[in-house]
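Methods, example record. To illustrate the input and output format used throughout this study, we show the complete record for Metallophosphoesterase. The sequence lines were provided to the predictor; the line carrying structure tokens was produced by it.
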Amino acid sequence: MPKALVVSDEVDERLWTDAVRSHSVDLVIGAGDLPYDYLAFLASALDVPCVFVPGNHDPDLSGYTRYGGLSMKDGFPTVWPGPAGGINADGRLVDVAGLRFAGLGGSIRYNDGPNQWTQRQQARRARGLVRRARFRRWRDGRGVDVLLTHSPPLDLGDRADPPHRGFACLHRTIEVLRPKWLLHGHIHPHGELVPDRVVGSTRIRNVVGHRIMEF
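The corresponding predicted structure is encoded as:
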């Protein structure tokens, strides 16, 4: 049963020290809007893989390809701005520590910043992710364990103000993929207790801050 340190949006300074080594986990999961140096430190200190999706305040990671230790963009070697050793699951299916992740990063578009999408754009990205997940399931019989997003589904833990509205397409994505978990950030509880939400067989959890989770 894999155990993970799940983080999003708010840096916990207590974890950005050697004290983090007291946690025995199999991987680090990031749901966006955290310094990439923070994610890289957590993964390095714990000596575990890190899978993440970018948030709306994170640098744009589109267009980069990685082969071994070399990063490329537009056909030229370059420095990848993401966390060292991190696995970007945005728009992809990735298998890490025995879990299959499907990732959709970013938030609703509210200005010209990176990693922001209109409802229509994110719906198109979600359809591509579903196609890839179906093909992988046909090939190896495995479904998705964790749908990792930055923003929540529309009307399921989001807010009424425009920058914090959720994505409508995630309802259909949950329905088709039937992941055991949807983990998201973006919505800061500000001390409020945020209960999990359940849709079908999927449990939706706001992971702003940090949590230790067993899957």
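Annotations derived from this record:
The mean pLDDT is 94.
The helical segments are 36-46, 119-140, 169-177.
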